[in-house]
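Appendix B. Extra example for self-study. Work through it before the problem class; the solution is given directly after the inputs so you can check yourself.
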Amino acid sequence: MKRFARCLLAVFSSLGTSCILLVLLGLLTWLGTLEQTRTGLFEVQRKYFESFFLVHRFGSIPIPLPGANLVMCLLAVNLFVGGLVRIRKSWATFGIIVAHVGIAMLLASALVKYEWSEDGHVTLYEGQRADHFESYFRWEIALIRKEDDGKTREWLVPHERIEDAQRSRVRVSMTDVPFELEIESLARNCRPEWAKDAGAHGPIVVDGVRLVSRAVDARAEANIAGACVSVVDERDGIRRRALLWGAEAKPFTFFAAGKPWALSLRKERYEMPFALQLARFTKEDHPGIDMPKSFQSDVKVASAGVERDVKISMNEPLRDGGLVLYQASWGPSNARPGDRLFSTFAVVRNPADQWPLAACLVIAAGLLFHFVRKLVRYVQLEARAA
Amino acid sequence: MSTFIRQFCALIALVLVSAGLNARPQASEHRTQPWSERTLEAFGEIPIQDGGRIKPLSTYASFALLRLNGKRSAESSTGEVLDPVAWLLDVTFFPEDAALSKSFLVSDSDAIIAIGLSTDGKKKRDRWTYAELLPGMPRLFSLAHDYDAIEAKARTSIQQQVVDLASNVFSFMRLARSFDWSRGGDPSDGHALTVIAPANTTNVDQPWFAPANLVAGIGPNRSLEPADAAVVAEFETLIRLRADAGAFESTLISLRDRLVARAMARGEYEHVELERAYYAFDPIRWSLASFIAAFLGVSIMWLRPRSKLAWKSTLALTSVGALLLVTAIVLRCIIRERPPVSTLYETVLFVTASCVLVAVFIECVQRSRFAIQTAAVLGTVGLFVANGYETLDKQDTMPSLVAVLDTNFWLATHVTAITIGYSAGMLAAALASFYLLGKLIGWKRDEPETRRKLARTVYGVVCFALIFSTVGTILGGVWANDSWGRFWGWDPKENGALLIVISQIVMLHARRGGYLRDDGLCMAAAFGGTIVAFSWWGVNLLGVGLHSYGFTSGIHSALWTYYGIQWGVVGLGGVAWLRERATRKNVPVETPVLEHRRAKKMRAAA
Amino acid sequence: MNEWMRHCAGLGIAGASVFAFGCANRSENVVTSKIETSRIVENSKIDFSAQPSHAERFGLVASTRPTHDPHAPDADDSKSQFTWNTPGGWSELPSSSMRVANFRPAGDERAECYLTMLAGEAGGLTANINRWRSQLSLGGVSAADVEQLPRVDFFGRKAVVVEATGTWTGMSGGDSKSAWALLALALVEPGGSVFLKMTGPKNTVASQREAFLALAASFGAPGQPAAKVDDTAGGFAFELPNAWRRGPPKNSRALSFWAGEGEVVECYVTVLGGTAGGELANVNRWRTQLGIASVDEAAIGVLDPFTMLGRPAHVVELVGETSAIFGVTCMGEDKSVFVKMTGPVELVRKQRSAMLAFASSLKETPTR
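Solution. Structure tokens for the complete assembly:
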């Protein structure tokens, strides 16, 4: 047993393992890059870079490969065991060890970002106000009940259940809710259409309307999800059916158990610890051509009754309350001079925001130390030989 | 018979051209003598606002003609060779003459046939005049409009050529109509020559005016500011006096002074003269000449290996070439007030300069001769690539930048580091290729120390490359995080940079683990050159992601040529290695790890 | 070799274990889930009392606001010296130093129409016509040809009507466009020249020909009464949607239009005294015209509400085998107004929002 453990340790700390894992990572990176010409970035990211296992098709030949997630986990182990613990410690390897520490920091920040970060966007026309930001790709179904004091209470069916709904029916029960929701079907990309008759096959028709599936768009944001949801009230056996669509103008409202409710399929929302209002958006083009030179938004940030004015522009984000807001883009893209413009902010909540920069400095320091030391010795050697 | 028809057609063409270009029906003047030196100089010095920046008219004309004609000169109907400024003078002041100059390069005459014209008397790849193309123009524009709807990647070569030709003809027409307003035409055309700075404001974001813009301001109950009116009046005088060379020259000089003064009043004329000097001196051309001379020196070094003179002159010429190239880069930095690398063209210049400088440094330390030879070759090849890219891209090489790129800090740190990483990677590949080819032909067969020195140099350059590639890649992520909130998005360009870093780390780890020795390392480094090329050029051709700069098929073929050559070298290196293994026992090189293991085994056995 | 095999075996085992760990459950037929938490939201803008239909929620039924630009509010008075009547459906654009009056015909972004004035003869009539023709990649015409062109009244004098179609290259900064047309009036005199020029896609120019000529006729110097262009008729004022044209008048119809291209989809306004037999009867009458079964009173309650002429109304959509009726019924004690659009199913569907915009723009004008 001890021999096996030692053998395993030897394997994990060996340079050969490092080489194999790095080559695998390089192969995945290369295949993933080529694949992006056909499939969108979002899909490729999920398949090649955030998975543990995948099958790559070379023409019609399937080639099973480990996913980048798996490879990086193993690399992390290899780095720790071989590059930090078991490596010989001397001045000759000091620089290397420091560089390895930096890489470990980089891998750690990647893990933190993957698990504990939220990102999305908030889009505002001038004068508009928002207190939450929305995901780019993740959906949720919100069940909303009107409370007596004019506020509303929401129960949220998370994105993971919505993904499940693509393959099977999903039944959701919620605390304090006297009925259950059943998501009968879900399409990742669909559009509504009039339906004169409900055919035996094909999408469900409700209220003379049905949602027709479309091929998943390579540009992930162009996909509008749609779901057929039933409100199942066990007590009175009433089953209300509704179609929910990602781009609907209004939610589905109904009465149950003497209270008004609403159902909405929308992008996942994340609260911001402040309210954001766009006061003014200015865009400057290079003179005479249609190329943006700079754009900036003047916003008001309000929290706990205090309001302050902030400028957010390209390369100058707003950092507040653990969130970072970046000037991401603007629109509409076919706006004519004088049209009303909206400004889009990318919002990120990432505890590991500044870790990569620190990691970079550490790696640079380590590598510089190591190679400058080697270079100096080499130059001295050559000078002595000459 | 055919001559008569040709003359008849030329006459009809002339009439149509007159109508199309709206020349005055009565006095169809022609230019009777070449433009004088002072005229050309004065016209070239006039500042124009184009592409979002102020540049001399000579730069504008130079790139315009390059785009239309594939070279910086045009042949007129009288056989005169026109430089870009002279050509632009013709197009704007004597459009009827310019219509008969060969201004349009068509690479494949099938495009001409497609628009319904005959290619009699023309080669497959030839230059055409506006008048020759005029009868086919309705069909040209109609076809171009249809082909434009097809996505660029899906167009055939002929379709792309038709689209390009239509665009070029359209540009020509825009320039030719610059002074239509003085001939009674509609001033809503001919806005290309934006040479008049706004007079009443120093806001640098205000667009400049073409004479046609100002004229459009004249109307019932509306008149121009006196200063603007004076400029328009001077233009009118200039146009009227176009046939009188002497009067034209003096009026043009006066107009130039007026326009330059307006630009100076706004502080926008600072670097225009420097830019003119830069293009006039053309340091890149002299640098290339130096490198080619050094290349000849290299061949002499091979013919006479013991000649110290050959070595010294090669070293000197390479250094001069490097110095000129560095001068060019520095001048460009000053003119554009930006760090040295901001466009793909500038990466080529910078990579060439770094490769040569590092190689010269290595030579000075080692004096082993292979470094300087590699430097001369890289310098020559690099500048040829730069010139080729400039012709292929057909745009001003000092453009304005989109908002996200317009930040000097990140351009100076991330982009410079990555570019140095590219150059070190290419240098390592070049040195490694030298090693492999040398091994094949038996270079220094009886001096294994020199070969080992070369292999160690490759190793050293890879280490150097690793630092800059890694730091540059991570800084790119930090920049992206600061701008958009995501450090790494698996974008093709990011992936390319990661591939370079991974390949270099693998090389170093494999060498340390004993899996790669001299030969293996050189083969890997040579192959690494193709990874650098893929990251540098290949990802832009994919047309995906944030770094998609545009589609150029010339780059595609050049890139695959390089891939082929480099893989060929790696293959030949493999052949040489196998041959060596077959002929004699392989003596393993001691590396610390292997030694440690052997010692451990011996202890265990004992 | 041994060492390599051990390496690979070790990695393989590690990989397999992680993979097994990362595998998800096989999906069953029904996935159940429980949501434990909920949250309070302060300012939700949901209107719980409204019960919008699916069609309304998904935007299949048009919003009830007008969809095209109202007449541009400010033609800068200091710039224009003339008055004119902008044709219905045309947008006014700000005038520029070159364009004394500037329009977007029929709201089509690709088309433009503007009035230019130049001192003197501006190069001459033939030269200008040939310049326009060259912008359309056409050859020139002779002065004799120009003599033969038709003329109309413009500013109290005779102007030449110029029409041409070709591939447009004349706009600076744009790419060429095929199937482009030009319709222009050119008035060239030694004392000054005026041009009214409309360019755009062939179909737009053709369909706006009458509007163009009406606009030309309406130009007047200040102090002169501008010629009136009729967009009031039958006792109503309205805004005519893009691509709609006046249709054949009929006795019972207050207004009649062709909605869209060709003469396929008809839309007309009928005014009947009193309740005209009641809403149900009228709806059933339409249903019979389409060959579908009549309905009872309950169905009326389900019709979508609408507001027309400041009064409550209903939107009725009926789809038959091949044709459809889309209408607005506005019942009143004194009179009832019906707007009815009929035609092939798909084409009617396309004109839905335009029809609703037209209906909401209806205003009663005091009878003269």
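Self-check: Confidence is low (pLDDT under 50) at residues 1-27, 545-551 of chain B. If your reasoning did not lead you there, revisit section 3.
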